[in-house]
Amino acid sequence: MAIYTRTGDKGETSVIGGRVGKDDVRVEAYGTIDELNCFVGQARSLMEGDERFGDVREQLLEIQHELFDCGSDLAFVKLSENKYKVKAEMAVRLEGWIDALQAENPVLERFILPGGSQLSSVLHVCRTVCRRAERRAVTLGRSADINPEAVIYLNRLSDYFFALARTANTRLDVADVEYVRSKKVFRH
């Protein structure tokens, strides 16, 4: 089976319910989610075989499926609310995961730089790509009806990646890299 169709050779692509330019804000939104999903897969592969990360590897696999759901919701030109795949309870579940991860992490006093371990660095990439996906979804929502839960999910997911990046360093016994020019900005 050929994976090429040649239907996009003139700069257009199919979305659910029509065709748009490949640079359309809708394509940019779900394309950024696809990019994020690739980095999540990379993070999962860095955890392979390490029992310290079995719990979060499973969470990340679920997140990968949910990112497909999120992209699907944004790919629809017209979709009724009862067909949306991203639901409010998904963001609520992320909040529980964030709280559990934060309980493992040392108290945060200063801003931190992405880094420490390779795994933490990749998770910070996930965080920033997730923030971009959120911005693209917000932009799309200004001109089209979208599932508002998708934006909330992406917002919470970027927080999850921040917490998980810190937990990765904690579990690997690697210190977060503090931004040395920062004063103590977080109150406890």
Structure, explained:
With 188 residues, the chain is mainly alpha-helical. It has helices at 25-47, 54-75, 88-104, 118-143, 148-171, and strands at 12-15, 18-21, 112-113, 177-178. The chain has five helices and four strands; from the N terminus they run ββαααβααβ. A hairpin with a 2-residue loop joins strand 1 and strand 2 (18-21). Helix 1 (25-47) runs antiparallel to helix 4 (118-143) and helix 3 (88-104) packs parallel to helix 5 (148-171). It is globular, with a radius of gyration of 18 Å. The mean pLDDT is 90.
Task: Note the main attributes of this structure.
single chain, 188 residues, two-stranded antiparallel ribbon, 5 helices
Short description:
It contains five helices and four strands; from the N terminus they run ββαααβααβ. The protein has helices at 25-47, 54-75, 88-104, 118-143, 148-171, and strands spanning 12-15, 18-21, 112-113, 177-178.
Instruction: Specify Rg, calculated over alpha carbons.
Output: 18 Å
Sheet with most strands: strand arrangement: 1-2
Average predicted confidence as pLDDT: 90
**Approximate strand percentage:** 5-15%
Order of H and E elements: EEHHHEHHE
- Count the strands? 4
**Major beta sheet, specifics?**
2 strands, antiparallel
Gross morphology: globular
Number of helices: 5
Oligomer: single chain
Q: Could you give the distance between the termini?
A: 58 Å
Category from helices, strands and their pairing: mainly alpha
| Low-confidence runs of at least 5 consecutive residues | none
Please estimate the helix content.
55-70%
